[in-house]
Amino acid sequence: MLSAREAVCKLPSYHPPLGGRKGLRLDFNENTVGCSPRVLERLRSLGAEDLARYPEREPVEVVVADYLGVRPEELLLTNGVDEAIHLVCETYLEPSDEVLIVVPTFSMYEIFAAAPGARVINVPAGVNFTFPLHTILRHIRPTTRLIAIANPNNPTGSSATEEELRLVAQSAPDAAVLVDEAYFEFHGRTLSGGWRQLPNLFVARTFSKAYGLAGLRAGVLMGNTEQMSAVRKVASPYNVNSVALVSLPEALADSTYVDHYVSEVCEGRERLQCELQKLGIPFWPSRANFVLMRMGEANSAFVSAMREHGILVRDRSRDPGCEGCVRITLGSREQTDRLLYVLHEVLQEIGVFRREVRP
Q1: In angstroms, what is the C-alpha Rg of the chain?
Q2: Which residue of 220, 233, 278, 349 sits 20 to 30 Å from the alpha carbon of 207, by its own alpha carbon?
Q3: Do residues 198 and 18 lie in contact, with contact meaning Cβ atoms separated by under 8 Å?
């Protein structure tokens, strides 16, 4: 009887709770107001013939490369960051290889790395989820072929410095070092271009968060020209659909729209963190578009009560070191006003915070 490879049979499953998401979406780190009106206008202009053709990725890669300040040959558009991770794993990993992942983090690193049969080594984050630089360096061996790092990290919101990430890449020249900058717009710091001095360095970005294109699955992988040539051999020439390709240039062109949204998210992030500090609720300072807070035993009640009030937040209790934790995505100024109001209502309802105080 046909059966999947042993490595595949042993893979953990990732089933994001996407069903029944009615309400204010503060649970999946998506853009909470939607894409630029320019994107919608372009989509309305599509005709039947546009959808009948195979997608042409390369012309849009030239546009995106110019926008990001890199050369087209250093860049590959992908079906979200997920495919970027998958392609790096497929290009470089053998069953005898080892992969280093700092946990807690995005689950797909482990799944894509383990699928080819590589051994995944989970490196625990430092105290208060700080980047465990020295622990990573101690784990690097000749068999290390991939080190995957989300910066800023999800679900913690913590970040590593450019110097730390460069040191990791310098210390593992025979390993692909993938820095996932999915939350770059809310952080403002990047290693883009670093592959010109460190040819084993890759940088991934997404257009799901700040640009509001999560439903179109558009991402980008960047790296050294020679290494990107190898990765491109593994990718399908039609991996990004036509609808995503016509939308990307319009999304990038409307920088005013994106900058305004990012500004309001960052403002809301600070407002939420200040409020949590006043309330005495533990949280971790974030450099992304979300904040991770610890509700402890009241965690489940808090998530359920927020849903009843029409706001979706994400329970992260199953992540290493995140017992009793909830992650809350930030959105527009008006959405943050609503979040803070409901936050007080819910804390009073579940008995965590009983005083009548308003944000």
Answers
A1: 21
A2: 233
A3: no
Q: At what angle do helices 242-253 and 58-68 cross, to 10 degrees?
A: 30
Beta bridge partners of 255: none
- Among left, alpha and beta (phi > 0; psi -120 to 50; other), residue 284 is beta
Is the Cβ–Cβ distance between 26 and 310 less than 8 Å?
no
pLDDT at 85: 98
Average pLDDT over residues 225-246: 97
pLDDT confidence of residue 356: 45
Using a pLDDT cut of 90, give the percent of the chain over it. 91
Tally of residues, the chain: 359
Q: How many CB atoms lie within 10 A of CB 131?
A: 21
With a cut of 60, say whether residue 133 has pLDDT above it: yes
Q: Specify the amino acid at residue 292.
A: L
Angle between the N-to-C axes of helices 225-234 and 80-92, in degrees from 0 to 180, rounded to the nearest 10: 100
Rounded Cα distance, 150 and 326, in Å: 19
Write the pLDDT tens digit of every residue in 139-161: 999 999 999 999 999 999 999 99
